[in-house]
């Protein structure tokens, strides 16, 4: 189905099932421990052996020799494959560093060997007996030290809302110089780790030339294509299966070493092998969110009208890696005729940087939205009013492009009202509650809505059951549930009549999970397949498809009514299709918006920060399932608190690795850190986005929260911290 003009009235608009707060249909499997994750697929292949991955002990250089003699003699060892046994393997999609093969070391904990044994403990013990002779080379590990030599980023720069390096509109320098009120500050965000619960894990089995990988991955089709490239085997010989995923956060958008070494190890062992990356390997062997240094300049008239705005960001990566696209939202969020956004990239020999939890906007807004708070204060304006004054209904860099739907102002106004913004004391450091200094802060949230082709197959059985198959993934987000809701709405059945099967590369290729594009696109693919199935049902029953109604498990046309199952009495009916998009998103900018409000307490003696209340008001098109959408948003808000207050990979700038490589040293918020959250969704539908009239909403939850926390801390204390995370030492 080609979607190239705004959606008209369609069956989803009934909103009998879609749009209802619905428990996740996979919830009971997960909470009872019966949803098997990749490492737990004990039943998929007999005689599974355990693989243990050894990571490089240097950050840059070469391996001269690997001595496996003692390891091979260790009890239970079945096979050992080292990186010297293999040529340098090809790169998969979005991989910057090689995952295995060859003598060259590009970053710390790059995989250099896998030991296969009868038990995990035997494999681990043997791995520690491997002796590696390294020729270490000097590397670059310190972004601040390398920033001066960073190079402008050419061309398109990644997965986010995208665009090239330097983007200029009007005359930024001239307008900034002439502006009556000027602001110029630099902010830093640290390297961060996804810290998903489930590590990267894969079970690999060969049957002749056919390879099956039971793995944990957000993007099934990318992974299939990447494995074909890396192992140089035909894609048709590969099956990827990933029905349950214990969090991805961007760290499982692409193939990582667990899948590659499991395949190589299974081949060497001649039997299925399972591999899970240990927590230190998840942090140093896989990817992370790169640190940024962001300079923001704003010029305005005394009444608070922005006349010039610039956002420049520097980040680092391995050669072939991409920048953190932290300037993306600044192209679109506020009006202003004279604009500059630019990115620079420094070469670093740290583990590779890549997408993590709203890449681009999440760290970009951490800077921009403090800057807006600082500028509002400088202008003597209320921060909410300053943002509303500079709202824009068109892409400010391309005024001929309106937003498809934009109600940031509605989010800010309703949020201010619900949160009690009018009670805020604009003068910092004035409000006390016992030993706590109390402050409130806010920020705008912004994340783009991306359109991606997405396919599905829907089958109707004679029992009236509707089975949906798509390689879409559920990374803990609720995909199973919103897909079931979509099929139920389209076919006129209750949710219990829908079976959803996901994450298998034998199913039609979907958009996958990433960039908050999963929900809208994957359900639209299911919508398209259901349109086909409805036609097949009508035809089979001899109904005129123009007036046919699907409701209450029945199909009606004129004065005839049949049960839905009747249509399949002579055999299953199948509808298969993809949603494909025209250039609607080129003509109209599609984005999602939020107002984030936070109250904090800061201990007057120790400077310990406690978040007391949070509110997000979101404008993100039709909300397919308010319950799972709320869960997404409160999860994002929690990550925003992590980014503001805790999360930081500590870089050893001499040896080039992340030191706090476990969940004891890498701190994330826990329940006790998050006492109260509220989410309000504005009631809207965006006919430009898809037949579902929905948009992404998950990552919107994180975008802006970090700055709202920072602004609340400033309001509480009068101390402005521009260097995340805002730990107590920076407040004393
Ligand atoms: Mo997301 S960081 O685009 O999986």
UniProtKB/TrEMBL annotation:
Domain Aldehyde oxidase/xanthine dehydrogenase a/b hammerhead per the UniProt entry, residue ranges: 32-138
EC number assigned by the record: 1.17.1.4
GO molecular function: xanthine dehydrogenase activity
Keywords, sorted A to Z: Oxidoreductase
Gene3D superfamilies reported in the protein's UniProt record: Aldehyde oxidase/xanthine dehydrogenase, a/b hammerhead, Aldehyde oxidase/xanthine dehydrogenase, molybdopterin binding domain
Region (Disordered): 149-169
InterPro entries in UniProt: Ald_Oxase/Xan_DH_a/b (IPR000674), Ald_Oxase/Xan_DH_a/b_sf (IPR036856), Ald_Oxase/xanthine_DH-like (IPR016208), AldOxase/xan_DH_MoCoBD1 (IPR008274), AldOxase/xan_DH_MoCoBD2 (IPR046867), AldOxase/xan_DH_Mopterin-bd_sf (IPR037165), PaoC-like (IPR049648)
Keyword Oxidoreductase: yes
Statement: the UniProt record of this protein carries the keyword Oxidoreductase: yes
PANTHER family, sorted: ALDEHYDE OXIDOREDUCTASE MOLYBDENUM-BINDING SUBUNIT PAOC, XANTHINE DEHYDROGENASE
NCBIfam families in alphabetical order: peri_hyde_PaoC (NF041671)
The protein's name in its UniProt record: Xanthine dehydrogenase YagR molybdenum-binding subunit
Taxonomic lineage from the root: Bacteria, Pseudomonadati, Pseudomonadota, Alphaproteobacteria, Hyphomicrobiales
């Amino acid at each position: 189905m080609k979607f190239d003009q705004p959606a008209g009235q369609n069956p989803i608009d009934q909103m009998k099932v879609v749009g209802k707060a619905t428990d996740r249909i996979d919830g009971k499997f997960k909470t009872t421990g019966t949803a098997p994750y990749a490492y737990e697929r004990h039943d998929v292949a007999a005689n599974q052996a355990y693989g243990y991955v050894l990571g490089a002990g240097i950050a840059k250089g070469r391996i001269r020799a690997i001595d496996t003699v003692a390891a091979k003699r260790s009890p239970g060892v079945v096979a050992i494959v080292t990186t010297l046994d293999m040529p340098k393997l090809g790169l998969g999609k979005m991989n910057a560093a090689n995952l295995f093969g060859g003598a060259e070391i590009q970053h710390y904990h790059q995989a250099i060997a896998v030991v296969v044994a009868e038990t995990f403990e035997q494999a681990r013990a043997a791995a520690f007996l491997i002796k590696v002779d390294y020729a270490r080379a000097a590397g670059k590990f310190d972004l601040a030290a390398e920033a001066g030599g960073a190079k402008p980023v050419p061309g398109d720069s990644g997965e986010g809302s995208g665009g090239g390096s330097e983007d200029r509109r009007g005359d930024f320098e001239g307008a900034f110089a002439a502006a009556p009120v000027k602001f110029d500050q630099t902010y830093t965000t640290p390297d961060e780790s996804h810290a998903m619960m489930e590590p990267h894990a894969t079970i690999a089995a060969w049957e002749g030339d056919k390879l099956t990988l039971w793995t944990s991955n957000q993007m099934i089709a990318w992974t299939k294509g990447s494995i074909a490239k890396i192992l140089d085997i035909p894609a048709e010989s590969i099956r990827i299966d990933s029905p349950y995923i214990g969090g991805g956060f961007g760290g499982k958008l692409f193939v990582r070493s667990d899948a590659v070494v499991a395949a190589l190890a299974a081949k060497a062992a001649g039997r299925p092998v399972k591999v899970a990356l240990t927590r230190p390997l998840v942090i140093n062997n896989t990817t992370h969110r790169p640190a940024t240094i962001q300079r923001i300049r704003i010029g305005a008239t005394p009444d608070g009208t922005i006349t010039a705005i610039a956002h420049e960001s520097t980040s680092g990566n391995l050669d072939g890696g991409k920048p953190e696209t932290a300037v993306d939202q600044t192209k679109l969020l506020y009006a202003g005729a004279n604009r500059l956004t630019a990115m620079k990239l420094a070469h670093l020999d740290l583990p590779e940087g890549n997408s993590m939890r709203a890449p681009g906007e999440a760290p970009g807004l951490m800077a921009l939205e403090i800057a807006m708070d600082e500028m509002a204060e400088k202008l003597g304006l209320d921060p909410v009013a300053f943002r509303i004054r500079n709202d824009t209904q068109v892409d400010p860099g391309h005024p001929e492009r309106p937003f498809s739907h934009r109600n940031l102002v509605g989010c800010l106004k309703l949020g201010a009202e619900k949160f009690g913004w009018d009670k805020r004391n604009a003068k910092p450091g004035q409000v006390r509650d016992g030993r706590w200094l109390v402050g409130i802060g806010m920020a705008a949230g912004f994340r783009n809505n991306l359109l991606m082709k997405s396919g599905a197959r829907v089958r109707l059985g004679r029992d009236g059951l509707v089975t949906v198959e798509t390689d879409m993934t559920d990374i803990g987000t609720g995909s199973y549930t919103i897909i079931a809701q979509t099929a139920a709405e389209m076919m006129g059945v209750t949710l219990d009549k829908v079976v959803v099967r996901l994450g298998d590369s034998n199913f039609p290729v979907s958009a996958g999970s990433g960039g908050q594009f999963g929900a809208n696109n994957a359900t639209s693919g299911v919508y398209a397949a259901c349109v086909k199935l409805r036609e097949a049902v009508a035809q089979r029953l001899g109904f005129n498809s123009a007036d046919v109604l699907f409701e209450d498990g029945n199909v009606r046309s004129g004065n005839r009514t049949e049960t839905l199952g009747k249509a399949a009495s002579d055999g299953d009916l199948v509808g298969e299709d993809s949603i494909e998009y025209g250039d609607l998103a080129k003509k109209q900018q599609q984005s999602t918006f939020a107002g984030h409000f936070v109250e904090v307490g800061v201990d007057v003696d120790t400077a310990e920060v406690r978040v007391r209340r949070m509110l997000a008001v979101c404008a993100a098109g039709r909300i397919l399932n308010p319950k799972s959408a709320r869960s997404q948003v409160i999860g994002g808000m929690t990550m925003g608190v992590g980014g503001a207050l805790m999360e930081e990979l500590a870089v050893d700038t001499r040896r080039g690795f992340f030191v706090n490589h476990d969940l004891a040293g890498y701190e994330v918020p826990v329940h006790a850190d998050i006492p109260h959250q509220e989410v309000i969704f504005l009631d809207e539908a965006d006919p430009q986005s898809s037949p579902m009239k929905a948009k992404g909403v998950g990552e919107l939850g994180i975008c802006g929260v970090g700055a709202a926390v920072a602004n609340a801390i400033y309001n509480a204390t009068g101390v402005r911290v521009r260097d995340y995370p805002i730990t107590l030492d920076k407040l004393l």
